[in-house]
Amino acid sequence: MTELPLILAVADSFLDPTGPAAEAQLKHLNLVMLLTFIAIIPPLLATPWILWRFRRSKPKGKYRPNWDSNPILEILMWGVPLLVVTLMGVSLWNITHRLDPYKPLGKDPLEIKVIGLDWKWIFIYPDEGIALVDELIVPEGYPVELELTTDTVMQSLRISAVVGQIYAMPAMTTKLNFMASDEGEDRGMNTQFTGEGFWKQKFDLYAVSEEKYRERMEKAKQSELQFTAENYAILAEQGTSEEAKKRLGIEGQKGAIEMVLDGTNIFERVLARYWSGKPMTPESQPGSPLYDPKKSLLPPAPEKPLMQM
Amino acid sequence: MVDPIFGKLTWDSVILVQEVEDPNLNTFITSGAAGMIPVGAVLIVVLLTWLKWWKPFFGWITSVDHKKIGIMYILFAVIMLFRGVVEGTLMRVHQATALNGGFLSSDHFNQLFTTHGTNMIFFVAMPFLIGLINIAVPLQIGARDVAFPRLNQISLGLTGAGGFLITISLLIGEFATGGWTGYPSYNGSLVNPGVGPDYWILSIGLSGIGSTLTGVNFAVTIYKMRTKGMEYMRMPLFTWTALCTSILLILAMPPLTACCVMLGLDRYLGFHFFTNDMGGNLMNFINLFWMFGHPEVYILILPAFGVMSEIASTFSAKRLYGYTGIVAATMCISVLSFMVWLHHFFTMGQSTTVNAAFGIATLLISIPTGVKVYDWLATLWGGRIRFTTPMIYLSGFFILFVMGGLSGVILANPTLDYQIHNSLFLVAHFHNVILPGTLFGILAAIHYWFPKMFGFRLLENYGRATAFCWIFGFCLTFLPLYPLGLMGMTRRTVDYSDPAYVPLMVISGVGALFLSLAFILLLLTFWRSIVHRKKQQNPIGDPWDGRTLEWWTPSPAPEWNFAVLPEVDSRDAFTTAKQNGTAYQPIEKYEDIEMPANTFYGVILAVFVCGLGFGLVWYIWWMAIASFLGCIVTMIVYAFIPSKENIIPAEEVRRVDEAWRREAREGRGITRDDETTVANKGLARPDELPAI
Fold it and tell me: How far B101 CA sits from the closest chain A CA (Å)?
């Protein structure tokens, strides 16, 4: 039983991968370690041996105070690391391109938009017309594309067991494509320090069957909560999703906050907030200690797409 | 809102007042630390008065002697190290107990990791290394002083001013919470309007200017002041690394200054360089910061590599293996260090080709670094190794540093970085490089050059115990962070909810206590050695059978370093001279020596810079303006005062130098077997060379 916690911990990490990307990463980790061992095992073994063999109190080898070069040794010293780095460089180049987080993993991926806030994540399903807070539910074995931004400081969304992480930054969007290969539950989190509640910024990832996914979506659509600019402003206040429930008046409700989209593209409006050409005031900037949800309404949705960064 | 006289400063800003108003464990810890500042200040004043040391005290702080400046840098670093170790231990012990809540508050913990990082990099590692460079380089190249002695004092003053700001933040106000890298927009005025980020910007910005000046000073010193025959390819390795470090300082510190200024403009004057809105872009900060930050890593490690080279050669009584290779490797590392900064943000969403290119560039650095390790091992091969304290640090370094290399290579892979970026794996990696690399190098160097600085050796048994404690404490503290990072634990978490982390966290916490013990032992080493300094003396100046010029002077070295500048005709010039029997031959002709006189220039500037920084942090505009004007006026006034010189008459030089040479010629010296005993008076009898 004492081993149980350890297994649990690995279950949320890429050491026990549940997606093809994390699986490839784990393999690559092993390859990198093996290759590096070629270069570092010799000094690890040689250090104690040389120290022992040539100790002044009882030396074994010949004393050669003026010996300071040897062509063969020199070639080995530069050559072996060069060879190792070349091999590793090739594999690095290949796998970096293969695991590009911007590359969709299949045709027509499920598009989910993500807004990072202090200290919670909002997942918007535009096609389904719903949004979830701190819960990401995806059909297993189906390609997913996350498009991320934040409405506060920089964050980094990581889902260790499936894919890894990518930064999310205000006024900009980034992408993370992934696929969960089996049904199961994992955890994702923010890894970039964002202040006091930073460590609480975690969410659940559920990879489920197509059927269960549909069920979940239908349930979310029944929610009475609308994803309006007003409700969004309340969500944007600092605090975890549990604290947000209180502010939204749904205290005690179990599970993630579910909202129905109001058709005004909150995600684009969050981005547009920073492209309005007007400076942000402390009252309108989520994350600021003076932030006031009443004074921080989002601008209307932009007519043409914003500049992409 | 801002008071015209006191700015933002109120009684509540003083930590000790906060403790009275809201007593709890956190304010108790902070106020305990804060209380040490006034108590320490009073104690120093009392002590100086009691011992009637005011005169020597002013003699030291107005000195432009590179050796004294170096010693002051090191003293400063030891004091700052005290704070860094306490903070580190506090954090590790806190995290060991942090499952669902430890004893520190979130805000307190966040300030701790920020000050710990800032302090350790800028006010411990850098001053230590710059101090060692100050002490050793002019002696190693056979110079009387650095190229710009007064500038040297100003650099020290600026570093001290930065140290003042980060220290006073303990007592008055707060420090930033955004980590030592201080990323906006978290550290911008909208999200963090408090004084913390201002303290951060000003302390590292001002000391950064000091470091740039040091770089200029030592680059010029090494280019221009080498003694006759000291060609580039005859320079000791430490001097080589000091040269590369100086160049890195000149090129890498300005981006830091620039991003401090830009962030300052954002915060103070509402500019939009790095804000979220109005076209500001935090990525620009991150780019600029790491354009400094990555070379900075090599600023920290290269001089330590130099130390390792000197020690490997001296304590195995052998020539350095692959001198040319090591020099080439050092240059490679210096150049490559500017080409890899992007690996600090692989996960920022740039194209894969960019990521892959920077990943491979990062891998390339491991080649010259690996070569160096192999070269040092080859230096030991065929030697006669003595296990002095520096050698123990060196052995620990060999084993542990290659592990740091392994984790560095892992992190260099963007694919893997997507997983372990921002995790404890990263924390483990850089501590794995900086402790066994930089810190062990520094401590080894202190043991190695201590007799040169003060004229007596540190006690070996204490030194060895300390070294083992650092090595053991390091392993226990930081190696468990690797698996924790792979398991997904992020850095900078005040709290966690996964019980699986606990066992490793506890081991790490215990390790931190060992590191604290190591620090206490280090202080004890100094203390006991000072008590026994009479027995430990080595006036002749060559306790380790040294190979380079710095050992060819009495200990401590006289103000003028060399009575007559030595001539060099090979790499290990002093070894050659000892073998030929020409080392201590009498000199025929002595001349008057001109040395720069003491000055208050740097001291006055430092006081004004402290005022400028403090005034800016607290919006005390009159203080900031007055201090700034003070700086300008000081510089103008000193530009017009003709710089004074001390003329040391030839007779006095002759008297000191002849006595020393005579003593060395007449003494029998000791072999390396008695090196660590009281018989070691600094006259080495080299080993019999085997017949070739």
Answer: 12
